Amino acid sequence: MYCLQWLLPVLLTPKPLTPALWFSHSMFMGFYLLSFLLERKPCTICALVFLAALFLICYSCWGNCFLYHCSDSPLPESAHDPGVVGT
Question: Where are its TM segments located (predicted)?
């Protein structure tokens, strides 16, 4: 599972606190995954293990899913600060 070591940072990279950056973060992670899959062509087992881990993290709403923000999980305290968001 040598190819899995390049996919683990995607799961461990925290989401930014500012909601304005969530879209940019998800696009960056999506393009990173797409370019990794096209360039490195990981084995089937590694791809399935990674997709299962990504599905479980996003399904459980632990707050580190880069695809979307779970509606049940609260926003961080700094998300309501206008100085941080830059409105």
Answer: 20-38, 45-69
For 52-87, the pLDDT digits (tens) are: 888 888 787 766 676 666 665 555 555 555 555 554
Q: Give residue 56's Cα distance to chain centre.
A: 12
Where does residue 86 fall: left (phi above 0), alpha (psi -120 to 50 degrees), or beta otherwise?
left
pTM of the model as a whole? 0.65
Instruction: Enumerate residues 6+ apart whose C-beta is below 8 A from 40.
Output: 3, 6
Residue 85 token pair: 């968001």
Cα dist. 47→3, 37, 41, 72 in Å?
A: 9, 9, 9, 28
d(CA 37, CA 78): 34
